[in-house]
Amino acid sequence: MTLKTSDYFRYFPVTPELRRWGLGVTGSGHTRIAAGSSYPREKHPEDHQLDWEHGRVLDALQIVLISSGGGWLETRATGERRVEAGMVFLLLPQTWHRYRPDPKTGWTESWIEVQGPVVDELLHAETFPPATILRVGAIGSGIEEVLESIHRGILQGPNGFQPELSAAALQLLALCSRISQNLARPSQIQRAVSEAERYLGEHHSEPVNVEALAAKLGVSYSQFRRAFRARTGFAPWKYVIHLRLTRARRLLTSSDAILDDIAARVGFSSGFHLSNAFKQAYGESPDKWRRTLMNGHPSI
User: Fold this and answer.
1) Average pLDDT over residues 109-130
2) What percent of the chain has pLDDT over 70?
3) Which of 3.90.226.10, 2.60.120.10, 2.60.120.280, 1.10.10.10 would CATH assign to domain 8-181?
4) Domain 186-300 architecture
5) Sign of CA dihedral 101, 76, 65, 164
6) Residue 298 above 80 pLDDT?
7) Where does the chain have alpha helices with state H?
8) What is the torsion angle, in degrees rounded to the nearest 10, for the CA atoms of residue 160, residue 166, residue 169 and residue 170?
9) 282, 289 in Cβ contact below 8 A?
10) Inter-residue contact 68 to 85 (CB < 8 Å)
11) Could you give the dihedral angle defined by the CA atoms of residues 113, 118, 119 and 123, in that order, rounded to the nearest 10 degrees?
12) Domain spans of the chain?
């Protein structure tokens, strides 16, 4: 599929709506650079202007798809890399970079800029490590279609913040993350963590021995624990507790079951142990949380 969007670029201010929705599109563009043409073709705002000699540093995250032609991308982490049609690269905030099309071929670039707390969290979690910002397999992954929908919304939609564009931008980030994971065969520890996450999701209400689970998956527990925490944000046992408490909260809101019954259903040995874990996680007892919720003022 080839993008049908006309050439353009726009930048937008950061608004309160962006913070409320978690992320927003603060810039976008689509440009066809013919072979032998100067680059960039148009002059962008001073804080976004790019030239190959000096490079550039941005305050926001940009996603750039090259749908035809080729060229080069360089960052401190990647070094100078060849960019071909069908590749997408992410320009991380506060990171020096430079890129340009090959004068022999030119290229077609389609891009958006995104900002917001969701973006900050993804970057903090190293969802897009600096050494892996260039990814192959963008064409056919859905990235091109999502970018086109964003361009269409900007060019044809109402002025001002559009929540639909925020949703599309989040989808685009998810697609970029997915294709990056397909560049190489997952390692043994990656496969083990993925399998463990699936297993614990299905069996967290049963007795669980996470060290035995790691051994069954063929990895050392210390390595497994580090990798599991990096992927989920929880140590393995804390993840089990998190799943049990999440289910307990659903049962507290949807039934009149007593605490001992809920504890038995989600995997705690007693209502007392459930209550202790609940207080540690949320700062109040399950009964108090349920009463507050029923009165229309949930605190969690």
Assistant:
1) 93
2) 94
3) 2.60.120.280
4) Orthogonal Bundle (1.10)
5) negative
6) no
7) 16-21, 117-124, 143-156, 163-181, 188-203, 210-216, 221-232, 236-254, 259-266, 271-282, 286-294
8) 170
9) yes
10) yes
11) -170
12) 8-181, 186-300
Q: Taking a C-beta distance cutoff of 8 angstroms, is the pair 177, 128 a contact?
A: yes
Question: Residue 200: which of 192, 208, 188 has the closest Cα?
Answer: 208
What's the rounded Cα separation, in Å, for the pair 38 and 50? 12
Confidence of residue 3 (pLDDT cuts 50, 70, 90): very low
- The number of beta carbons lying within 10 Å of the beta carbon of residue 113 is 26
- Name the average pLDDT for the chain: 89
* Encoded tokens for 255: 């039934």
Tens digits of per-residue pLDDT, 133-192? Answer: 999 888 788 999 999 999 999 998 888 888 999 999 999 999 998 886 544 456 788 889
What does the block give as tokens for 254? Answer: 């949807």
Contact 6, 30 (CB under 8 A): yes
Residue with tokens 């000096």: 54
Q: For residue 268, give the amino acid letter.
A: F
